[in-house]
């Protein structure tokens, strides 16, 4: 059974302000001046009828009382019962109530409408901040700062084990930067190098070796492929959340995806 609350997509405990807000949003989507779809026109009429009832406190109270009468169980009659399976009890006139079908559950976006309305504004803030972060990263990672007179000072040997096996590499430290190289790279302490990195976040792109066994070689440290994949996910989910009119539960899913992607983006910037 469709109720006026279901038509407006609000809970039966919704406030007058929430009902008014839902009505305005739905009317804009279904108004005949905006769409010629006959189904949208029928929905527009139903929306106005629902709002006319729920916006008036007296009419709403009478409607709520009518709904309660509809969901209250009717007095048990013979039509609602069946003979008891125990013969002794059946002879004494005992009857067993028939199993009644469970009432259908309301859609999730209606059952949890209040919770969605409380969380979605926070996701909106995260979406704006994530777009700003992607813009800053794009500017920074497309620029290059050159450190011309760097000297290899320390090495840190790192070994990592996983189900697929173990891997090892060196972290090289200079006066103003650090970067990872393969464990067979023949850099030595005191080698002179030139480091090309991003100016704001200091992520090393390329290393040019100016002295030592590898003099004249160039090491490509990172092209940041994983970073750009994260940026695409962050920007795409943020734009989808902000620019597309989604049902509350779907908007929640998109906003949650955006928040998780931003979290991994900052993990990458801090630890990779």
Automatic annotation (TrEMBL):
Family annotation (CDD domains): DnaJ
Signal peptide limits: none
Composition skew (Basic residues), residue ranges: 90-99
Location of the region described as Disordered in the Swiss-Prot/TrEMBL record: 72-100
Keyword annotations: Membrane, Transmembrane, Transmembrane helix
A Pfam family the protein falls into: DnaJ
Lipoprotein listed as a keyword: no
Protein name: J domain-containing protein
Organism listed in the record: Hymenobacter sediminicola
Lineage, broadest ranks: Bacteria, Pseudomonadati, Bacteroidota, Cytophagia, Cytophagales
